[in-house]
Amino acid sequence: GDSVTQMEGPVTLSEEAFLTINCTYTATGYPSLFWYVQYPGEGLQLLLKATKADDKGSNKGFEATYRKETTSFHLEKGSVQVSDSAVYFCALRILAGGTSYGKLTFGQGTILTVHP
Amino acid sequence: DVKVTQSSRYLVKRTGEKVFLECVQDMDHENMFWYRQDPGLGLRLIYFSYDVKMKEKGDIPEGYSVSREKKERFSLILESASTNQTSMYLCASSLWDLGVPGEGYTFGSGTRLTVV
C-alpha cells in the first residue's frame, strides 16, 4: 500500500541554521505530495505542495522538490527561526478513483525545535 | 476565512461513556475525515465521508462510528469510551477531486480527549 517515511526526530537547530527534513514515499499510483505544519496546540496547516515530478513547492522560505526518480520530497529551509518550531508532516495523496477518494497518507511527523 | 471547527478543544470522559466529537466546515466541501494523532504514530485515519449519509472505514475504525446527516457536519462517536482512546482527534475536509491533482485538506484545531 501507499506509505510515507520521514526522518526520525526530534530535530534541534540553532536560529539561522539550514534545515532538511527527509521524506520518501511508496505509492501505487501517481501521487500529489504535501508538507503540513502543526504549531503547538493547533491543527495542521498546509505548508506547501507539488503535484507532478520536478515541481517545486515553496512557502514561507520552505521548499521541497518532487523527485520521482528517488521517490522523495525533502523539506528545506535556508535559515530557520524560533517561530519555525513545530511538527512537520509529509503526506501523499493519490488521485481519487475507485475507492481511494483521494485520501491523504501521512508520515509519522518530525518535531523541529529551533533555539535562539 | 474558511474554517473547520471542532466543538471542543479539551474533553475529559469516563470509561464506558458514549462520546460525541463534532466537526463543522463552512467551505461546502464534499469530503470529511476523522484522524487520531498519537506520539510516534503520526496521524491515523479513523473514518471518512464523501457525501451526506455516506461513510467509509479508515485504517483504525474499531471502537468508533460516524454520522453525517448534513454536508457541513461530521460527527465521530465513541460508543463506549476506553482509556486507549485517549488521544488528539483531528477533523479535516476537502473538495471532491475525482481525476484532478489533489488539493490539500483543511484541518480543525483538534480535540484532546482524555478517558479516565
Structure report:
Chain A has 116 residues and is mainly β. Chain A has strands at residues 3-6, 11-14, 19-21, 23-26, 31-38, 44-50, 56-59, 62-65, 75-77, 86-94, 104-106, 110-115. In chain A, the strands form three sheets. In chain A, strands 2, 5, 6, 10, 11 and 12 form a six-stranded mixed β-sheet that branches. A four-stranded antiparallel β-sheet of chain A has the order 3-9-8-7, with no helix packed on it. Chain B has strands at 4-6, 10-13, 19-25, 31-38, 42-49, 56-57, 64-70, 73-78, 87-94, 106-107, 111-115. The radius of gyration of chain B is 14 Å and the shape is globular. The mean pLDDT of chain B is 90. The A-B interface holds A 32, 34, 36, 41-46, 49, 51-52, 89, 93-97, 99, 101-104, 106-109 and B 4, 31, 33, 40-43, 45, 48, 50, 56, 58, 90, 92, 94, 96-110.
Low-confidence stretches of chain B are none
Strands of chain B, total number: 11
Number of H- or I-type helical stretches of chain A: 0
Instruction: Compute the separation of the termini of chain A in Å.
Output: 41 Å
Shape of chain A: globular
**Intertermini distance of chain B:** 36 Å
Mean pLDDT of chain A: 90
Give the low-pLDDT segments of chain A: none
Quaternary structure of the protein: heterodimer
Figure out the total of helices of chain B.
Answer: 0
Structural class of chain B: mainly beta
